[in-house]
Specification:
Layout: E1 7-13, H1 20-25, E2 34-39, H2 46-53, E3 57-61, H3 67-80, E4 85-88, H4 100-108, E5 114-118, H5 124-127, H6 132-149, E6 161-164, H7 165-170, H8 182-192, E7 197-201, H9 215-236, E8 263-264
Parallel strand pairs: 1-2, 1-4, 2-3, 5-7
Antiparallel strand pairs: 3-8, 4-6, 5-6
Helix pairs in contact: 6-9, 8-9
Length: 265
């Protein structure tokens, strides 16, 4: 808890048995009030490892629903637990949990309602082992997205993010895809709604057990990013209106992927 605000860390997991313990052990407690793991029908022992570690809130999708669907369940569960600040951290140990206090403190102080852990700030991405083709693609896509959104972020593709509960309740993420482009759609929605976004320098690790999108899905993701960016630009200029970018002042904005029976606690 920070300044009386409840902090919940969510772990969207898929085949994370080899790295989950290292990630979980570095989550700073008692600052973090609750940890939620959502397992997207892993084929390894992710759930068994989570139970052994004593993670109190484990939700399992009965079938693989996708990375975006996993996050929808994560945020729904975090809000159900009364979170004021939600930190999304990949359990593949690619991002250090030691930045959670800094990211949560920025939100708790009221400076920004959204914080990203950026691999690009500080030039740590290549030192951490990011493949050169991914680094180049990241830089090109980010430059195009900044032109379309009017923002000036160092990257849009990090998997390390923190949000105030207000953001999660007013961004219509249930309209987003269930696949990898979810992250990008969510960030575009946040910018369209006028929320400020902070970035902190985040070291990263690329190693054999860390999850990574293969080349084919990466190309599909890149095309999806371009599509989201162009729609954001058209919406921002008032030429076309997209429900994706219409925020919900009174709605929760979050429904779990398990609403059709795919997930259970």
């Amino acid at each position: 808890m920070i300044d009386g605000l409840r902090v919940v860390v969510v772990l969207p997991a898929f085949n994370a048995a080899a790295t989950l313990e290292r990630t979980f052990d570095e989550i700073p407690r008692p600052l973090v009030d609750e940890v939620v793991l959502v397992d997207d029908a892993s084929r390894d022992g992710t759930v068994e490892v989570a139970r052994r570690l004593g993670i109190a809130h484990i939700v399992r999708h009965e079938r693989n629903a996708g990375y975006g669907a996993n996050q929808k369940t994560c945020y729904a569960k975090a809000l159900e637990l009364g979170a004021d600040i939600v930190v999304m951290l990949h359990p593949d140990y690619q991002y250090t949990p030691r930045l959670i206090p800094a990211m949560a403190s920025i939100i708790a102080s009221g400076l920004y309602p959204v914080v990203l852990g950026s691999r690009i700030l500080g030039n740590g991405a290549l030192r951490g082992g990011m493949p050169v083709y991914k680094y180049v693609a990241n830089r090109l896509l980010t430059a195009f997205q900044n032109l379309c959104t009017g923002a000036k972020l160092s990257e849009y593709h990090t998997g390390y993010r923190a949000f105030s509960a207000q953001v999660l309740r007013t961004i219509p993420i249930e309209r987003n895809d269930d696949g990898f482009v979810f992250d990008n759609q969510m960030l575009a929605q946040i910018i369209a709604a006028g929320y400020g976004v902070a970035e902190v320098t985040c070291p990263t690790r690329y190693f054999e057990e860390a999850s990574s999108i293969r080349l084919g899905p990466s190309v599909v993701y890149g095309l999806g990013v371009l599509h989201v960016s162009v729609r954001h630009w058209l919406h921002r200029r008032g030429w076309l209106e997209y429900p994706l970018f219409r925020h919900l002042p009174e709605a929760t904005g979050v429904e779990p992927a398990g609403r059709d029976g795919r997930a259970h606690t």
